[in-house]
């Protein structure tokens, strides 16, 4: 009993220290701007919960963030660092636009389904290219992913300014808005499309189940831990790696699709808005443990949404949310490092 | 330098690897350290050379207590350790490897370092090329380089952990001569081994470890009766030696067949191999390190496709089909490095059995744990179904790897199956492999240990410079003849006779 309690205390000390250190660093950054840290923290931590609109903004950010983080937890389990998640999200958004632009008169329900499938396929394909580069050109998936991110951004920009430019004149602010009836059903006053969080939670449940209960999940984890040994035991190691990349790309692609049909209602150059990379932070902090993905994604989304008010109320930049998120991940990684 | 430990204690979780050890090693001598796997030898050596730090007790060099913060610290204090696996930078040349880790002020220039290296190499009788890249050298040569690096960096105490594992007999002889020279120059040598003959041949004293204790307390002068040392290492009862039995007549089709196979690996060319490997045999591959045994095993496991020719498994042509197809055809490959590419350290035995399940969407955990429990009982593995493999001892890992071989396997390829195991564990492993042979498997193993090859093979295949000899029945072979063949003496005649 007593030793259990001691062990629990020991297990909690390091995360708590990491939390304190992250806030200390963020406080230093705040103090340097001369604003009251307490006031800033009130906005960053609780701002997202102050009005229903902000709460729904937070949910609409948390949904794609969770999708990306869930996808990344698959690639982490498979031993891959999929830094290309941002590009996969963009590729998904572009692919999702295709059916919406080709057949705008079709029934919306069918079009959403098509857009979802097309987005997932686009993201998966973009991710599989990384797998192919790794397999056939011996390029690390980290560099391949980063390169593919630039390629995807360029492609989105080209589509916005080229083939899909506005009818009036090409504009960096995006394509023409989609017809109103193709927007995912939205509670207008709140800017909340309830389907988005539902899809994200569904993905979380399915992936958690797949990774912990299925034979596929066990094989993926075995490949992630030791591809050579898994191969010796008869697991098709490269195939599993490719599948994890495709699964992560598909989820990121669906996140991109949601950005198009539920948030921006158009393709904009910055359609991914750094959500994929924020998802990497979430997955890193959660250690790809599915139980932690949801709370951390919600927390990070609320920091980002809460900090949007900082420029208006306190006259400082909203980037402080990024400082807090980054510091949390950094110190969590430090706290986890094994003592030698 | 005189080196001693007092009440030295090191725990890993609940396991006390070194329990209040007190022992001292005098200068100018070679000290053997004996013990079975898990007795605490490696822990003691890592404590002495700064790789890990003790929980209690102290380390004393020349009557002054020292706290060692790391291997560099230990080397500055005069203690250097040669690890079982070479810990060097493979892409560097011998000279670069020497320079990059040298403490400041040891060498004034590259030229000075090279002169010092060649001078020492001459004294120790090690042939060395300062410009050769380490990844082009054999394990034995890299070990020689490491010994010279430590000595040139000022090591007064040299620790060697199982140094004769994976090196050739000739290299072992050169090593022994060099160690005698090093001791004669007044340095202290600690020689960790579980091979009694080597300790008997080389060492002035012996320290026996069992379960983290020195038994009996303190050093023993050599020589000692072999039976006495065995009883100290293993307690009173060792496993009974296996009984030699004649080959059964088998008329089943060959497990493997090579037809006009040509393959290459680095500078090694294997040309026009024609072999049939019959069922119900244990075939030992003998040869110097890198004579072609590795390539042959990789060909038979499907990990390397031949440049020309065909590889048949159970009569089916599987040329170029890949290792998974070979595995499905009943070929099991057991690598020498169990944790590197044999099993997954973080997963348990039950997880491994679950990985072997081929049907169903979900993992059948209950079935996997049941199989793991059966394997634990049958193979006497010291573990529970959910213990991570990495926390098992080497012998238990090897047993687990054997337990994971499906009963449908017809051919087993084992690379150094008893590498790093103590005598009792090795015997247990071999009795399992022999039972597999009796069930009709063909087992092909490689080993640098000629005694192991002579003791357990039904047939021996000698590899020499990329040429693969014909299978020789064990009964027709003597140890001295085998040693000659490995060195190439009479190898041509052997091949010609078969043609």
UniProtKB/TrEMBL annotation, chain A:
Protein keywords: Cell membrane, Membrane, Transmembrane, Transmembrane helix
CDD domains (alphabetical): TM_PBP1_transp_TpRbsC_like
Protein name: Sugar ABC transporter permease
Keyword Transmembrane appears in the UniProt entry: yes
Positions in coiled-coil regions: none
Transmembrane segments: 59-80, 87-103, 109-130, 142-161, 192-211, 242-261, 267-285, 292-312, 318-335
InterPro entries named in the record: ABC_transp_permease
Naturally occurring in which organism (per UniProt): Chloroflexus islandicus
Compartments it resides in: Cell membrane
Any one cellular-component term (Gene Ontology): plasma membrane
Key word Transmembrane present: yes
TrEMBL record, chain B:
Domain of life: Bacteria
Annotated ranges, domain ABC transporter: 3-236, 250-490
GO function terms (MF aspect): ATP binding; ATP hydrolysis activity
Keywords: ATP-binding, Nucleotide-binding
One matching Pfam family: ABC_tran
PANTHER family in alphabetical order: CARBOHYDRATE TRANSPORT ATP-BINDING PROTEIN MG119-RELATED, GUANOSINE IMPORT ATP-BINDING PROTEIN NUPO
Protein name: ABC transporter
């Amino acid at each position: 009993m007593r030793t259990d309690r001691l062990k629990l205390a020991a297990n909690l000390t390091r995360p708590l220290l990491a939390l304190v250190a992250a806030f200390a660093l963020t406080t230093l950054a705040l103090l340097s701007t001369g604003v009251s840290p307490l006031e800033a923290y009130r906005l960053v931590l609780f701002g997202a919960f102050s009005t229903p609109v902000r709460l729904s903004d937070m949910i609409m950010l948390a949904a794609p963030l969770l999708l990306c983080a869930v996808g990344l937890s698959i690639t982490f389990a498979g031993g891959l660092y999929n830094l290309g998640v941002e590009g996969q999200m963009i590729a998904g958004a572009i692919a999702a636009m295709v059916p919406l632009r080709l057949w705008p008169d079709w029934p919306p329900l069918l079009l959403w389904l098509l857009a979802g499938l097309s987005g997932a396929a686009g993201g998966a394909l973009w991710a599989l290219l990384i797998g192919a580069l790794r397999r056939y050109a011996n390029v690390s998936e980290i560099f391949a992913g980063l390169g593919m991110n630039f390629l995807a951004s360029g492609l989105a920009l080209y589509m916005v300014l080229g083939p899909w430019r506005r009818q009036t004149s090409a504009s960096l602010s995006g394509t023409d808005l989609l017809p109103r009836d193709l927007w995912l059903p939205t509670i207008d006053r709140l800017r909340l499309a309830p389907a988005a969080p539902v899809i994200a939670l569904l993905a979380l449940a399915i992936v958690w189940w797949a990774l912990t209960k299925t034979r596929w999940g066990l094989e993926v984890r075995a490949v992630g831990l030791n591809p050579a040994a898994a191969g010796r035991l008869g697991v098709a190691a490269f195939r599993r790696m490719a599948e994890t990349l495709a699964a992560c790309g598909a989820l990121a692609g669906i996140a991109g699709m949601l950005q198009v049909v539920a948030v921006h209602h158009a393709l904009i150059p910055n359609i991914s808005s750094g959500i994929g990379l924020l998802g990497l932070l979430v997955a890193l902090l959660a250690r790809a443990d599915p139980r932690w993905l949801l709370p951390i994604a919600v927390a990070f989304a609320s920091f980002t949404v809460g900090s949007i008010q900082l420029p208006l109320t306190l006259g400082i930049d909203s980037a402080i949310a990024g400082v807090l998120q980054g510091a949390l991940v950094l110190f969590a990684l430090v706290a986890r490092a094994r003592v030698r | 330098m005189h080196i001693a430990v007092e009440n030295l204690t090191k725990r890993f979780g609940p396991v006390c690897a070194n329990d209040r050890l007190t022992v001292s090693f005098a200068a100018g001598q070679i000290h053997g350290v004996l013990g079975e796997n898990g007795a605490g030898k490696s822990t003691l050596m890592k404590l002495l050379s700064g790789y890990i730090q003790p929980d209690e007790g102290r380390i004393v060099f020349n009557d002054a207590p020292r706290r060692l913060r790391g291997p560099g610290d230990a080397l500055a204090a005069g203690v250097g350790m040669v690890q079982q696996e070479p810990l060097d930078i493979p892409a560097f040349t011998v000279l670069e490897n020497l320079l990059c880790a040298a403490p400041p002020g040891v060498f004034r220039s590259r030229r000075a370092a090279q002169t010092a290296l060649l001078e020492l190499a001459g004294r120790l009788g090690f042939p060395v090329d300062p410009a050769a890249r380490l990844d082009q050298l054999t394990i034995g040569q890299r070990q020689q380089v490491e010994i010279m690096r430590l000595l040139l960096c000022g090591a007064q105490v040299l620790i060697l952990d199982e140094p004769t594992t994976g090196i050739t007999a000739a290299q072992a002889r050169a090593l022994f001569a060099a160690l005698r020279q090093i001791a004669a120059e007044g340095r202290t040598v600690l020689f960790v081994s579980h091979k009694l003959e080597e300790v008997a041949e080389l060492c002035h004293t012996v320290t026996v470890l069992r379960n983290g204790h020195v038994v009996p307390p303190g050093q023993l002068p050599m020589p000692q009766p072999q039976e006495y040392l065995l009883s100290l290492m293993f307690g009173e009862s060792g496993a009974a030696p296996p009984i030699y039995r004649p080959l059964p007549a088998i008329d089943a089709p060959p497990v493997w067949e090579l037809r006009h196979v040509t393959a290459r690996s680095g500078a090694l060319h294997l040309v026009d191999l024609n072999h049939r490997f019959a069922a119900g045999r244990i075939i030992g591959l003998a040869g110097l390190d890198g004579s072609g045994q590795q390539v042959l095993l990789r060909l038979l496991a499907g990990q390397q496709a031949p440049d020309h020719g065909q590889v048949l498994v159970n009569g089916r042509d599987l040329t170029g089909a890949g290792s998974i197809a070979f595995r499905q055809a009943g070929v099991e490959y057991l690598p020498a490095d169990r944790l590197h590419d044999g099993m997954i350290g973080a997963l348990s035995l039950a997880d491994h059995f679950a990985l072997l399940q081929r049907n169903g969407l979900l993992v059948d955990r209950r079935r996997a744990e049941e199989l793991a429990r059966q394997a634990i009982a049958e193979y006497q593995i010291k573990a529970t179904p959910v213990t991570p493999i990495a926390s098992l001892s080497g012998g238990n890992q090897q047993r687990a790897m054997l337990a994971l071989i499906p009963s449908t396997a017809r051919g087993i390829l084992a690379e150094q199956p008893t590498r790093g195991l103590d005598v009792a564990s090795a015997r247990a492993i071999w009795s399992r492999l022999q039972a597999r042979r009796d069930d009709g498997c063909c087992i092909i193993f490689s080993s640098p240990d000629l005694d192991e090859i002579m003791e357990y093979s039904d047939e021996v295949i000698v590899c020499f410079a990329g040429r693969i000899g014909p299978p020789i029945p064990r009964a027709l072979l003597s140890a001295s003849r085998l040693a000659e063949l490995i060195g190439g003496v009479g190898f041509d005649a052997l091949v010609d006779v078969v043609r």
